[in-house]
């Protein structure tokens, strides 16, 4: 009994050192990955949210396309106190893989523009573009900044299970510091800063003796950090991965996997 207790006491500091501390989650590389991703990606809850947003009418001089450094004219309610607007185009429409419920719409970022003058049409100066601006592209105000210190200390008791449903940058295999879209959001209890465990289903193999298909046990494959929540969707960053992750992989809240 005394020997077992001694081993336990000697092992405890080592075991505690192996558990990631919240402040270790957000090193400089992690912070840069989150901020860079949010600069170029966002979700709106419904297509109507984009349809009702102010939109580009034409570029300066009546041209139909706008490029970096040009001025563009927009119609719709824009706030002069908002110095800069993102330019977006409707992207993927997300539905729940099980229920087919509409969860949200990815707003593809085209660039940014600075408010210049309000008249019958609002004039904006294009600051940055990732592709040519078209008539009908939408203007949205800036998202709230991610509070990194809040991410480091977030904790939730909610028990949540869901799936990775998209990789916004378009690759098929997911690795460390890649961002993914999840089919759960604020209404499900997810909070920014929450840790999630990715569970991959075991492969199906053929039993060489019986000839029957046999599914191998599921296994933990990585850890996600939720850094932006929407009503029904969330963005998360891959903090660790023992295997390549993919769309349709299941996740569960960290305490479920302990």
From TrEMBL:
Signal peptide: 1-17
Keywords, in A-Z order: Signal
InterPro entries hit by this protein: Bact_Kbp
UniProt-recorded name of the protein: Peptidoglycan-binding protein
Record organism: Pseudomonas paralactis
């Amino acid at each position: 009994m005394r020997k077992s207790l001694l081993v336990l006491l000697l092992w405890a500091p080592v075991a505690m050192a192996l558990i990631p501390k919240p402040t270790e989650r957000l090193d400089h590389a992690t912070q840069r990955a989150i901020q860079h991703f949010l600069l170029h990606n966002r979700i709106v809850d419904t297509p109507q949210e984009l349809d009702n947003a102010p939109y580009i009418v034409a570029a300066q001089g009546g041209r139909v396309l706008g490029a970096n450094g040009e001025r563009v004219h927009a119609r719709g309610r824009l706030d002069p106190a908002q110095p800069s607007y993102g330019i977006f185009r409707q992207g993927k429409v997300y539905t729940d893989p099980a229920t087919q419920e509409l969860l949200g719409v990815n707003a593809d970022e085209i660039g940014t523009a600075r408010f210049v003058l309000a008249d019958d049409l609002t004039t904006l100066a294009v600051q940055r573009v990732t592709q040519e601006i078209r008539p009908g592209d939408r203007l949205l105000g800036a998202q709230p900044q991610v509070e990194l210190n809040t991410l480091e200390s977030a904790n939730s008791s909610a028990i949540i299970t869901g799936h990775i449903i998209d990789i916004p940058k378009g690759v098929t295999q997911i690795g460390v510091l890649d961002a993914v879209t999840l089919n759960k959001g604020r209404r499900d209890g997810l909070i920014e800063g929450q840790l999630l465990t990715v569970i991959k289903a075991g492969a199906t193999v053929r039993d060489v003796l019986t000839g029957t298909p046999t599914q191998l046990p599921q296994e933990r494959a990585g850890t996600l950090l939720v850094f932006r929540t929407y009503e029904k969707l969330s963005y998360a960053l891959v903090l660790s991965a023992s295997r390549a992750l993919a769309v349709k992989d299941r996740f569960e809240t960290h305490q479920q996997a302990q």
